[in-house]
Amino acid sequence: MGIRKLGHYSIRTTDLDASRRFYTEVLGFKEGFRPPFRFPGIWLYMGGDESDYGTVHIIGIDLNDKQGLVDYLGDKSLDELKGTGTVDHVAFLATDLAEMRAKLQSTGISFTERTVPSLGLHQLFIIDPSDVTIELNYPAQEALKLGLA
Asked: Where are the alpha helices (DSSP H) in 24-76?
């Protein structure tokens, strides 16, 4: 019984709409099925595949009624809800580096990038609305075609 793949990661946010826009419009996730929990949120899927339980769970915080969330996941101070803490970043394999660079530039989202020659990867690092670092890994050949590596 080994671990086979990432199930999902969850982010708590007080700005559900900003997270929804970032993950759907910038990263291309699709919003899909989410159980009827007693707190707001969205489940996001890669490639429209809803055969699993989603890749990113955005947990909305209703500042006027936090009890449903507190009952289900426990309470956290709003001060704790920025950044990745001891988790440095979350990484995805991706394709179409040129399209993502253009999308980030057109939306004003800053990014850093580098090529890891020994792995054949070109990496883009971006920050989501909750200050979580997202790493996107592209084949280095895509960066070479763009004159980046």
From this structure: 67-73
How many whole angstroms separate alpha carbon 59 and alpha carbon 31? 13
Q: How far is CA 29 from the centre of its chain?
A: 9
| Ordered domains of the chain (ranges, CATH) | 9-80 (no CATH), 90-145 (3.10.180.10)
Nearest to 134, CA basis, from 1, 9, 31, 3? 9
Kindly report, residue by residue over 70-108, the tens digit of the pLDDT: 898 888 888 777 777 767 789 999 999 999 999 999 999
State the Cα–Cα distance between residues 69 and 10, nearest whole angstrom.
Answer: 13
Q: Quick one: tokens of 77?
A: 């101070």
23-76 confidence digits (pLDDT tens): 999 999 999 999 999 999 999 998 766 667 889 999 999 989 989 988 988 888
**Euclidean distance between CA atoms 134 and 142, whole angstroms:** 19
Nearest to 75 by CA among 61, 94, 95: 61
Q: Of 51, 55, 111, 61, give the one whose Cα is nearest residue 81.
A: 61
